[in-house]
Design brief:
Elements lengths: L2 E9 L2 E8 L10 E2 L4 E7 L2 E5 L2 E5 L3 E5 L4 E6 L5 E7 L12 E3 L2 H16 L7 H10 L2 E2 L6 H19 L7 H8 L3 H12 L3 H18 L5 H7 L5 H12 L3 H9 L1
Antiparallel strand pairs: 1-2, 2-9, 3-8, 4-7, 4-9, 5-6, 5-8, 7-10, 10-11
């Protein structure tokens, strides 16, 4: 799968890379095997991973741990280039990573993004990478990967939401639209989604919107009103209120901190 890798940080026992992947179609890749234990932390776009008979969609709020020797396949879920940060143990280093997926909190997402930006600029981040990752995962929720009908409809809902947010064209979509994409009633999806993920559909959508907003701000988006419209917030003030509540900063402050 075509990709470009940039090493952001390398230290004994730890390497951080930014990986940009380009793929022309939504086809499964060849089978790979993990050379060293790693965490895959999506930044933009979405990629589906398949490990044996289990699969997980890595949207911008989901993290995947892969253990040494783990076989896997990937396929892109959004058409645009997908960017991830991969944190891995160099060959020979001992750094066990459970083969699990986690859903990050908005605060953890914000701190990690600031951390990656600091590394990319060559700055010394406030916390070591390993410590920040432990903090982020300690507050994260383990993502369910069980099979069956419930898992299938939840994954259809997650794919739909990830695809809509990746478009960022301002087209309005509701949770009823998500239920239609999942091929079930809104009530059944809402109940199944919360039972399967531990989060409501509304909260999941809100976290995806925040992740998309952070990416746009990091890219230098100048109009907060246009950003709010593109991501489905009711107004610029609504976007600002969500940022303050979930991240502790305003969108303007986030843009400055990510761009500095």
């Amino acid at each position: 799968m075509p990709q470009h890798r940039t090493v952001l940080h390398q230290a004994p026992g730890l390497m951080v890379e930014r990986v940009v992947q380009h793929a022309p179609s939504r086809q499964w890749s060849a089978a790979y095997e993990v050379a060293t234990a790693r965490l895959v932390l999506p930044v933009a776009g979405a990629t589906e991973f398949r490990m044996g008979d289990a699969s997980v969609l890595l949207d911008p709020i989901t993290v995947l741990g892969l253990g040494t020797g783990q076989p896997y396949q990937m396929r892109p879920w959004t058409g645009a280039a997908r960017t991830s940060v991969v944190v891995s143990a160099p060959p020979g280093a001992s750094w066990p990573v459970p083969a699990e997926a986690w859903v990050l909190t908005p605060r953890a997402l914000w701190l990690l993004r600031c951390h990656w930006c600091s590394l990319a600029r060559g700055d010394e981040p406030p916390l070591p990478t390993a410590r920040l990752l432990r903090m982020a995962l300690s507050s994260a929720r383990r993502a369910a990967r069980s099979g069956g009908t419930t898992a299938a409809l939840v994954q259809r809902a997650q794919r739909f939401m990830a695809g809509q947010l990746a478009c960022g064209d301002g087209a309005r979509w509701t949770l009823d639209d998500v239920a239609q994409a999942a091929c079930c009633s809104p009530f059944h999806l809402a109940h199944s989604f919360r039972r399967h993920t531990g989060l409501s559909l509304h909260v999941w959508r809100q976290r995806l919107r925040l992740a998309a907003a952070l990416q746009h701000l990091e890219d230098g988006e100048s109009s907060l009103a246009a950003l709010a419209h593109a991501l489905g917030f009711s107004s610029q003030s609504h976007l600002g209120a969500v940022f303050q509540r979930e991240l502790g900063v305003t969108p303007a402050q986030a843009r400055r901190l990510l761009a500095d």
